[in-house]
Structure formats: structure tokens, C-alpha cells
Amino acid sequence: MGTKRSTVQKQQRPAKGAAKPVSASRSEMVEAVLPNDANVVGYILGGRVMHLIDIAAALAAHRHSNSMVVTASVDYLDFRNPIRVGEWIVLKSSVNRVFRSSMEVGVKVFSENVLTGERKHTSSAYLTFVAIDAEGRPHSVPALILETAEDRRRYRQAAGRRKIRLAHQHREKLRPAR
């Protein structure tokens, strides 16, 4: 029955401002890694991966908020495995938690061998987006409906990451200018 409910919600766009399920924001991007994306040893450039992470996260944020969004922050990012020229880069994103006008979006990045189908986890990132109106002012976003145990785990963990982000922002504001 839960599967049927999710399918119906995916097909019907909720009213503006109505709560939306995590599944409504899920996005996946796939691109071929070409030589112009690579460094001199044949791996995708880290900056290119970061660019694609930002785009994948924005897709999920736009889908959830049905509005324009801007990137407010990107949490720690590391590169676990390289992605070679000729492989695909696969980016999966979804909204983890909604606050008033901001959303935490998680992105998981994989390399995929086009011949064998083997996937390797290469990076993960958490980004914060703020929904804005036509004048660039923040506005509230729909609540998030958690559908799975995984959604609930990510929702809980997002609260801890937000606490760290806000503490860091507060510390920066207290530092004297140089």
C-alpha cells in the first residue's frame, strides 16, 4: 500500500505550500566523463564534480520548493575514488530536511563503468539551499513527508549538521575583522 501511495504522489503535483514526500524531490543525473572534463592523468576534475553536485542538489531543491533557490552552503566534501574518462558520473540527490526557508539536500556521487555496469561510490555532499521569491527574498517551503526508515534517518542526521552549521556561522560573526 505504501508503494501505491508514493506512486500516486509522484503523478499528482501537490498544491503550492502543501507538504511533499521525499520521493517528489529525488533526482538523478548521469553524464559521460569526457576528456575536456579531465585532469592530465585522465580523471574528472574535482571542480567539475563540485559543479555537478551543485546542479544535482538544486534540482532536488527546486522540485521540493517549486520556486527559485540559491545555494547557501556546502558541507565537507572529499573524493573517495577517482572517476575516469570514459566512465559515467551518476549523481543522486534528494531533500533530507526542510526548515523554514531552507532545505538540506544530500547528493551521493558514483562512477559507473559503461561496459560492466560496476558502480563505485566516489563522493557525498550536503548542501543547504534557500527558496527565494522574484525579489530575492527568502520564503517558506513545504514541509517534508518522510516515507521510509532511510528518510527518517537522514532527517534526524540533518538536524545535527544544521546545528554545526549554525554554530560555525555564529562563531564567524563574532570574530573581529582583520
Describe the 3D structure:
This protein is of the alpha+beta class. It has one domain: Roll (Thiol Ester Dehydrase, Chain A). The chain is 31% helix and 30% strand. The protein has three helices and seven strands, in the order H-E-E-H-E-E-E-E-E-H. It is globular and about 45 Å long.
Defining key terms:
alpha+beta; single chain; 7 strands; Thiol Ester Dehydrase, Chain A; globular; 5-stranded antiparallel sheet; disordered N terminus; 178 residues; two-stranded parallel ribbon
**CATH level 4 superfamily:** Hotdog Thioesterase
Determine the mean pLDDT.
88
CATH architecture: Roll
User: With helices defined by DSSP (H or I, 4 residues minimum), what is the helix count?
Assistant: 3
Count of structural domains = 1
Could you outline the blueprint of secondary structure elements for this entry?
Layout: H1 2-11, E1 20-21, E2 27-32, H2 46-65, E3 68-74, E4 88-98, E5 102-112, E6 119-132, E7 144-145, H3 149-174
Parallel strand pairs: 1-7
Antiparallel strand pairs: 2-4, 3-6, 4-5, 5-6
